[in-house]
Design a protein that fits this description.
Elements (H helix, E strand, L loop, with lengths): L5 E2 L1 H9 L1 H9 L8 H23 L5 H19 L11 H23 L5 E10 L7 E10 L3 E8 L12 H14 L5 E10 L2 E9 L3 H19 L29 H4 L5
Helix pairs in contact: 1-2, 3-4, 3-5, 4-5
Bound molecules: iron/sulfur cluster.
Length: about 270
């Protein structure tokens, strides 16, 4: 029987995307390297962290060239440390894809420097926060990317295209981080903002998406987490629903070892 002492937004999201994948990673210890897109996100986080950590003390933003260096350095560090998930068909082009990845991270850092960094006066950067409530026998933990002097909670996101309308209201992370913020500060965040950096035909762009959560959202999420804990306790790890976009050799690093993939599914085009 598996016992769990803490939960994160990403673990919760992974479980409900594919419980079988969660089992492989968290119970069987199989590591899935991040894809290039995730490394680009790490690069942007590295640039934001470098800027806002020092801005707490100095009150001024770093030059764009410093943020570009920080983004490229963080991207390369993560690739070296964690490896990279690459579909078999893409392996011959891996060198080019990795080099395009570092260029994207740098482009996003330039947008950060030009349009986003001046907007925020930081109060904390990459702060570790936890919450143990009466609802469940586990602690929720997370690193909040940025909180501001005017009590905003900010999270950095990267995407291949502009988020669809309303996507910010569907992110469970906002409900979890709002609770962590309240547990840490004793007040509601003034706003929860996703700063989304994305590619467009005119180059890298950014969009700010604001959402509001309340206790009703938290109760609903705890209901889901309770189901998750019961399934884990019973060793119940079904595969994701047939036809799920994430169940493919491009998006799931466990595709080639997953025992849940039927022979028919393995014969789909592009597999
Ligand atoms: S291949 Fe599909 S069913 Fe198997 S772990 Fe990955 S997403 Fe889940």
């Amino acid at each position: 029987m598996t016992t769990l002492d803490h939960l994160t937004a990403s673990s919760y999201g992974q479980f409900f995307k594919c419980p079988a994948q969660w089992d492989y990673v968290h119970n069987q210890g199989i590591k899935i390297p991040p894809g290039i897109a995730a490394h680009v996100g790490s690069g942007l986080h590295g640039a934001a962290e470098a800027n806002f950590r020092q801005k707490i003390v100095t009150g001024v933003d770093l030059p764009a060239s410093d943020l570009a260096d920080a983004a490229a350095t963080k991207y390369r560090e993560r690739v070296e440390k964690d490896g990279v998930l690459c579909a078999r068909d893409d392996r011959p082009a891996l060198g080019r894809l990795l080099s395009e990845g570092v260029d994207r991270a740098v482009e996003f850092s330039r947008v950060l420097a030009a349009t986003v960094a001046p907007l925020y006066r930081p109060a904390s950067v990459e702060q570790f926060v936890k919450y143990q409530g009466p609802e469940l026998p586990v602690t929720w933990v997370g690193y909040i990317d940025l909180t501001t002097a005017d009590n905003k909670l900010v999270d950095w996101k990267t995407a291949g295209k502009r988020w669809p309308k309303g996507r910010e209201h569907k992110e469970n992370q906002a409900t979890i981080y709002r609770k962590l913020f309240v547990a840490d500060r004793g007040i509601e965040p003034a706003a929860t903002v996703f700063e989304v950096f994305f590619d467009s035909k005119d180059g890298a762009k950014r969009d700010d998406r604001t959402t509001v959560r309340d206790d009703a959202d938290w109760v609903a999420l705890q209901h889901g987490a309770g189901i998750m804990l019961r399934m884990i306790e019973h060793g119940d790890f079904p595969p994701c629903p047939p036809g799920s976009w994430n169940c493919s050799p491009v998006w799931c690093g466990l595709w080639w070892v997953c025992r849940h993939i039927s022979e028919r599914q393995r014969r789909l085009p592009n597999v």
